[in-house]
Amino acid sequence: MTFSPELEKRFTALLTRYPEGRTRSAVIPMLMYAQDETGAITGEVIEEVARRCKVTPLQVDEVVGYYSMLHRKPMGKFHVQVCTNISCLLVGGEELYNHASKTLGIGHKQVTADGQFSLEEVECMGACSWAPAVEINYDFHHHVTPEKLDELIRGLRKSQ
Q: Which domains are assigned to the chain?
């Protein structure tokens, strides 16, 4: 599998951080970087990461199955994640997720027809003190209200 020169450099640097025999520690960051570039974790990505990290494809596949931030199918350009764990739930996280679903017209791990937005209900984001929390791509938003979410979505739509 061929990645961009920038990602190849990143992979090379990443693998040098781990001593011989410990490159399996690079599996998760490699998968995250590859997903950012390719849009999803495909069988081909799994094979390539396994080869580079000197583990079996099954071991990499198990990692993909375990971590919810790794996706086997492409998500939208703007991946909206709404936390509904207990702290967020108690201050409107479920209502916020339902509002996002209605606003975007999609459900959990679905993508809008234009490919611009995807939605995911997630467990803890580690932002309990700032609940309810939303992450859009890698940007966190705290104390999110339905109105604030609408404003974020409008801003993203305008940026396209």
A: 5-66 (1.10.10.1590), 78-158 (3.40.30.10)
